């Protein structure tokens, strides 16, 4: 996210000097849409609008629904989590986000788009969780839009592998050491169970925190917090309504 914590951290540490970025050109969602008065609904692929002009032309919502969503966006943009007077009469800390949808009369099809394409939730349980969490997610999306381009998403031109490479350059400038192609033998803990560093052969490196892939540690140290299903589809035709993207 262009206005997210990761980008802010990269700017703060000046790692961005060693990275080249581009905006993600577009993101799309699948939505069930009525094909006609008689025919059954069809599954349509629609571009997530990134500006008011695209929003007005979008197939994701009807004209009246677009007006309701614009009103919702204005409300979300003005919410201050520390000032209850900006909450529009909703108890953001205790009320579920479903109450926000009800306040603005948002349709179910639009809830699906807003919850998963704007707030970026993986599942629908967010509807029954404290409203402030989703409002902050939507606010981040809106604040990221237009910050560095039409899209709210930024990506390193040469892939996410550029991030550790940029940090290694910054680390070298400040006298740090990178150990490449080195498999750690053990993650070290004190008697209280707090991590203290890692061991590689006879050498140890101490640290108050270890950031690693789950495969580097043991099952009893892992805590599953969710599951994401991803797929890469190889097609023999372009997807409709994507300008042959």
Question: What's the structural blueprint in terms of helices and strands?
Answer:
Blueprint: H1 5-12, E1 21-23, E2 28-34, E3 41-47, H2 52-57, H3 63-78, H4 98-104, H5 108-118, H6 131-144, E4 154-156, H7 162-173, E5 186-189, E6 195-200, E7 203-206
Antiparallel strand pairs: 1-4, 2-3, 5-6, 6-7
Care to describe what's here?
The structure is a single chain. This protein is of the alpha+beta class and 245 residues long. The protein folds into 2 domains: 25-152, Guanine Nucleotide Dissociation Inhibitor, domain 1 (Orthogonal Bundle); 179-245, no CATH class. It contains 7 helices and 7 strands, in the order H-E-E-E-H-H-H-H-H-E-H-E-E-E. It has helices spanning 5-12, 52-57, 63-78, 98-104, 108-118, 131-144, 162-173, and strands spanning 21-23, 28-34, 41-47, 154-156, 186-189, 195-200, 203-206. The protein has a 3-stranded antiparallel β-sheet, with no helix packed on it. It has a two-stranded antiparallel ribbon with strand order 1-4. It has a two-stranded antiparallel sheet with strand order 2-3. Strand 6 (195-200) and strand 7 form a beta hairpin.
């Amino acid at each position: 996210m262009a206005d997210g914590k990761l980008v802010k951290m990269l700017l703060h540490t000046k790692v961005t000097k060693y990275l080249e970025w581009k905006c993600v050109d577009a993101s799309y969602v699948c939505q069930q849409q009525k094909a006609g008065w008689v025919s059954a609904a069809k599954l349509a692929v629609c571009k997530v609008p990134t500006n008011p002009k695209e929003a007005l032309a979008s197939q994701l919502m009807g004209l009246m629904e677009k007006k309701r969503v614009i009103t919702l966006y204005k409300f979300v943009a003005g919410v201050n989590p520390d000032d209850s007077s900006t909450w529009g009469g909703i108890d953001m800390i205790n009320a579920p986000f479903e109450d926000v949808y009800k306040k603005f009369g948002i349709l179910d099809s639009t809830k699906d788009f807003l919850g998963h394409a704007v707030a970026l939730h993986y599942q629908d349980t967010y509807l029954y969780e404290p409203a402030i969490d989703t409002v902050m997610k939507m606010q981040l999306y809106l604040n990221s839009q237009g910050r560095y381009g039409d899209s709210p998403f930024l990506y390193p031109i040469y892939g996410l592998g550029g991030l550790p490479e940029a940090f290694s350059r910054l680390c070298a400038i400040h006298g740090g050491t990178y150990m490449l192609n080195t498999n750690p033998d053990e993650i070290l803990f004190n008697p209280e169970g707090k991590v203290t560093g890692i061991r590689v052969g006879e050498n140890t490196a101490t640290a108050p925190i270890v950031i690693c892939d789950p495969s580097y540690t043991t099952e009893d140290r892992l805590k599953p917090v969710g599951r994401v299903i991803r797929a890469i589809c190889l097609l023999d035709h372009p997807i409709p309504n994507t300008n042959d993207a």
